[in-house]
Write a structure and sequence with these properties.
Length: about 325
């Protein structure tokens, strides 16, 4: 499993301050009722008073280009948080990139490029995501933003983790491993080590993967990153499955599910449901529970618009139903998917 920036905006409300009499300017408190001879002087002083006691001029309105960039960024962020309409999120982040480029706001442009790449990954456009992450990394390196450069590198590791294509990923990990010891942000180091663990697992280096996940877990604990800890629990569960240690896998999937539920994270809850159901099926124990978990996971994958994962989960559900002697239900699942 893999894990991706919240934008905070502060609104300042207009306020009016009414001064008590004792705090009014002395020019107002000392003037009495004017006599006939002093009416001109009074009017003159009153004019000066009103001019001197004016409130400060309001701040100028934001320039149109700045407002348009902020609006584009806000809309793109909302679409990404909804995690549903990813094509619209791609369009919104591309517009945000263009707006910040027009303003020559290079730092914001780099952040928008990173988020654009994340959305492109969701719609199955890895080439475009890779190109935009490389561009974001180039800009961040130029600006000296080391942590943001590392975020771009971790994103590139995720994009390059393609089945049957290991050379680019291996080359990038070999390049980054010597630099990781100088990374002071514990959460970023944990994210990197999590990717290292997944890569080692894909290469069949299961002990090396376990070591990387353990180190990532320690970094996430240091950084108080609950999402990172839940992700490590899920990845460790999948590692136990690869080792045919199904009892340990079931326990770790349960832990991951509880952690993701506390975070109210559907993107983590759904794989944890599917993982626990799969582990129970592989262990050939408590198949009714496995069936329920797999049904829930398949439905959630459909809701999240992840058809490949939904299909794989339905295949497991059909196997689970057959193992319970429910052939007709299994046939219905296969026909209805």
């Amino acid at each position: 499993m893999r894990r991706g920036i919240e934008n905070c905006k502060m609104r300042i409300a207009n306020c009016k301050l009414k001064l008590p009499d004792t705090l009014k300017p002395s020019c107002l408190r000392d003037i009495g009722t004017p006599s006939g001879k002093s009416i001109f002087s009074f009017q003159f002083l009153l004019c000066l008073t009103l001019l001197g006691c004016r409130s400060a001029a309001p701040r100028p309105a934001p320039l149109p280009a700045v407002t348009m960039a902020a609006r584009a960024e806000d809309q793109a962020g909302q679409l990404s948080q909804q995690q549903q309409n990813w094509p619209a999120a791609v369009r919104a982040w591309q517009l945000t990139v263009d707006r910040f480029s027009l303003l020559n706001d290079v730092a914001s442009e780099a952040t928008a490029l990173h988020n654009l790449a994340q959305a492109e990954r969701e719609i199955g456009a890895p080439e475009a995501a890779h190109r935009h992450l490389e561009e974001a990394a180039r800009l961040n390196e130029k600006l000296g933003r080391t942590n943001d450069w590392w975020r771009n590198q971790i994103g590139l590791l995720q994009v390059e983790a393609q089945p049957n294509v290991s050379a680019p990923l291996t080359a990038r990990i070999d390049k980054l491993l010597p630099l990781a010891s100088r990374l002071h942000d514990s959460v970023l180091r944990g994210l990197f080590l999590n990717e290292v663990g997944l890569w080692r697992k894909s290469q069949g280096d299961l002990p090396g993967a376990e070591k990387a996940f353990t180190e990532a877990e320690q970094d996430f604990k240091s950084g108080h990153d609950s999402s990172g800890l839940a992700t490590v629990s899920a990845n460790r569960a999948a590692l136990y499955e690869a080792q045919n240690n199904y009892e340990a896998a079931i326990a770790s999937w349960k832990t991951a599910l509880q952690q993701f539920q506390l975070l109210r994270d559907p993107q983590g809850i759904t794989p944890a449901l599917a993982g626990q159901g799969r582990a129970l099926l592989l262990a050939k124990r408590d198949l009714p529970t496995a069936e329920d978990l797999l049904r829930r996971a398949a439905r959630n994958y459909r809701t999240l618009q992840k058809p490949k994962q939904a299909q794989a989960t339905l295949d497991l559900l059909a196997q689970c139903l057959i193992a319970q002697g429910k052939q007709e239900e299994a046939d219905a699942v296969r026909k209805g998917r």
